[in-house]
Amino acid sequence: MIEQHDEPDLLRDQFRQLIRYRVLIVAGVVIGLLGGAVLALSGADKYVATSEITVRAATVNPFATGATPDKILNMGSERQTAASGVVAERAAKALGQPEAATELLANLQVTNPPQTTALDFAYTGRSPREAAARANALTQAYLDNRQQQTASSITIMVNGYKTQLDPLVKASEALRKQIEKQKDPSSVATNTNAQTNLLGRISELNGNISELKALDTTSGNVIRTAVPPTSAAGLGLPMALGLGLAVGIAIGLLAAWVRLVFDPAARSDSDVARALRAPVLGTLPRVRDSREPAPLLALDNTESRLAEAYRSVAFRLAYDQRFADRRRLLVVAPRGSSETATAVSVNLAASFAETGMEVLLIEADLRTPTLADRLRSGDGTRPAWARTPSVGDGGWPAGHQISVDAGESGSFDLVPGRRVRNVARALTSVPATRLISEADAPKSAVIVHAPAVLAYADALALVDRVDGVLVVCDPREVHRADLERVRELISGAGGTVLGAVLHSSGNTGFTLPWRRNEDRTAPLPVAPAEDAGSAPVSTTADLLEAVLPEPERSPVS
């Protein structure tokens, strides 16, 4: 059964997967720091000076009731006028720099606080004095421009009233002269009424003209004058770098998360367990590269961490009821090289032999058999069947069952692989079936090593005879879809995935899942020797000897 994780475990697992993309995270941090540095340096030589004014409309009596200009002012239009080219040109002329109008307009920012008739002028300059001088010049230019527009509007309106007034004055004067000459009372009365109407209209126009001339054309008041700023406008180098670091980490984590989402590889133990629906029995650690290849048989050194790790995997298999019932194990890789799967199968055979079991290791890789060379390199001796060419028709198996010396672990029998003309026929032959059935004998076990499942169908031809399958893979090189397909193929062929052993490419040593964060140099506990001349016996080996002979064992998830 697959171990169920709670929410904190899932979050920790996802975080561990994210930090594996260190290149993306570091790239995000570098980009953030560079952006913060650019932001700090770009504002290091810029200074912002601000001024503020209140805009007012022309009125006869600013203190009269209802004389507030809020109802007749459109502050949006006033803000656009303040940031217009007309104001910038007027300010440039006032500064004596007519050619600087475009620069003034580019560095000016005008804002209007909500629910107010105020305008804030902010100018960004290369020096504090320049910023203050230009901010004040732009402010005064806006006020002068607005006052000039108001005065111009008043002049135009007064001239319009005068244009209407002059004909009325002339008509009134003509009626007055007619009244003086006329003797008829009715005619005099009619002309007098007409003159009265004209005089009323003339009085009204004169009143409008007088009111316009009495208007206060003050366009606004300066409530804050721009002064030279004491510091640059930027955030400062420490703050900008801190902000850039935070943004860079966020960018890096986002990029890593996107990469993780679209990464088809099985990046963690939980991914492998979910894809295979079987537990991870061990994980191969990263070891330093060595020019000399690692020995195939790690159990020669009883105190080595690698030897104890293999014994621990065998111990977990021994407690799995599915393996204990039939004691048959097929060790395969999903695809690619099977070198690590070969090492796992040999050392598991030695681990079981160490407990006193009769173990038969079958090399079912009949396409590229390499176990002979690896055993020679690992044990230092070359078996007789490797030195002397075999005789016969070249079939497999041909009765060549060799006893392999596993050092202090004892010995186990080996049926080496051999190139044949028809691999499928050899794997499904009666002699091959008879070999695998040797596990039916008491205190015996059969371990079969076959080529990668997705490369050839050789392993699937043996699944119905072996039942239990151990998958050996590199989670960074195999896709989750491949593992799911391996599980489906094995289940469809009538077998069961007992678990998985993970590794990194090129490594043959591993640590168990619960020891992954511990010191990798420390070996597992070793029982003390009875006397100085006897070899130490590992604790795991003692447990295996106590467990394996028992007929009843509960499966381990």
Can you walk through the features of this model?
The structure is a single chain. This protein has helices at 7-18, 22-42, 75-82, 85-95, 101-106, 128-181, 185-213, 237-261, 269-276, 305-318, 321-326, 339-354, 371-379, 384-387, 423-427, 430-436, 458-466, 480-492, 539-547, and strands at 47-55, 108-111, 118-125, 220-224, 280-283, 328-332, 358-363, 402-405, 411-415, 444-449, 468-473, 496-502, 526-527, 537-538. The chain has 3 domains: 7-43 and 235-261; 47-224, Bacterial polysaccharide co-polymerase-like; 269-382 and 395-518, Rossmann fold (3-Layer(aba) Sandwich), CATH 3.40.50.300. It is of the alpha/beta class and 557 residues long.
Average predicted local confidence, pLDDT: 77
CA distance, first residue to last residue: 4 Å
Low-confidence stretches: 376-393, 507-541, 543-557
Major sheet characteristics: 8 strands, mixed
Percent helix, as a range, is 40-55%
Number of helices: 19
> CATH class of the largest domain, please?
Alpha Beta
Beta-strand fraction estimate? 5-15%
Number of strands: 14
Class derived from helix and strand content: alpha/beta
The CATH superfamily name of the largest domain is: P-loop containing nucleotide triphosphate hydrolases
What CATH architecture of the largest domain would you give? 3-Layer(aba) Sandwich
- Overall geometric form: rod-shaped
The gyration radius over C-alpha positions equals 48 Å
CATH structural fold name of the largest domain: Rossmann fold
The domain tally reads 3
Q: Which strands sit side by side, in order, in the main sheet?
A: 5-12-11-6-10-7-9-8
Region (Disordered): 521-557
Keywords: ATP-binding, Membrane, Nucleotide-binding, Transmembrane, Transmembrane helix
InterPro entries: Bact_polysacc_biosynth/exp (IPR050445), P-loop_NTPase (IPR027417), Wzc-like_C (IPR005702)
Transmembrane segments: 21-41
